[in-house]
Every structure is written in C-alpha cells, then in structure tokens.
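Worked Example 4.2. Consider the chain below.
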Amino acid sequence: MTTPHALDRVRVVFELFDADGNGHIEPEDFDLMGSRTVAAVPAAGDAATARLLDAFQRYWKTLETELDTDGDGRVSFEEFQAVVLSPERFDSTVDEFAEALADMGDPDGDGFVDRPEFLALMTAIGFDEANIEALFDAFEPVEGDRIPVATWADGIRDYYRPEKSGIPGDRLTDASDR
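Applying the procedure from the previous section yields the following structure tokens:
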C-alpha cells in the first residue's frame, strides 16, 4: 500500500532529479547532479567517485527503460509516479545508488559518515539544509556526530519504499510530521 508520505517523497525526488528545472528528467540532469555530488566531497577517492557517477548513469538508464512510456528520451512527473506503484522494478538500481552515495560520504573508509560530508552531499543533490539536518539527527548519530554508512544506505532504500511511513527520510519533505 502506498502511503501519503511516499507520494511526497516521489515529488521531492522528481524535483531533485530534474536538476535543470525544465519539468522533465533527462540524462543531462543526472550528469549535472553527479558532477555536483562528487564535487561536494573532494576527499573521496577515485573509486568512490567513479562508482557514484556510474550509479547516477545506471539510475537514469533504468528510469528511461522502465518509465519513458512515450519514448521521448525524458521522463515526465506522470511517468515518474510509477516508481511508487512498482518499486520492485527499481530495487537493484536503488541498492546500487544507496551504497555508492553512502560510501561517498565515508572518504576515510572508517564505516561512518560525518555530518559535514552528509550535509555537503545532500546539499549538492538539492535537499533543503533544515531537512538535511533533521534527517541526519533522525539517523541518531553516534559519538563524533556521525552515522554508520549502512544506516544511511538503508535510509535511502527505505525512502523509495511506498509502504514505509514514519521513516527518517520523511524529514526531507516539507509535509513530514517531524
């Protein structure tokens, strides 16, 4: 069952993926978002950077293959809503993206994402700073103001699950009940 929060999350993701703001998701949007995101953590190694850029490209190709119903090489919001209705079509792509993004936030490889890297990456993607801070806090940071990489990756996966409600990721929408 799709929750109201899932619909809010889908709208937020669509708006972020539409990095140039033209009302459609296109390959150039993923290039733009990818370059902004890797620039946000310059200390990340080449392997982490390449992995994240590859994940962005795979994400685009999956959206194009699964959702571009009219074959125009771009995805409208109407087409994008199918993410909520059929999340299983995107599980492996979301898994890859979640792991790559969370790993990008751990440039020293200690298994934790520090708040500054988390904020930098999420800001580069386009989320609002107050919402990012609320999300990080919802992940219940451990000593040193950091969260486990796995916690963030799991949080990304949950964000794309339409049956989930009351998850930390709901803090990224203005409609969340904080």
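The first helix runs from residue 4 to 17. Strands lie at 112-114, 146-148. Compare this with Example 4.1 before moving on.
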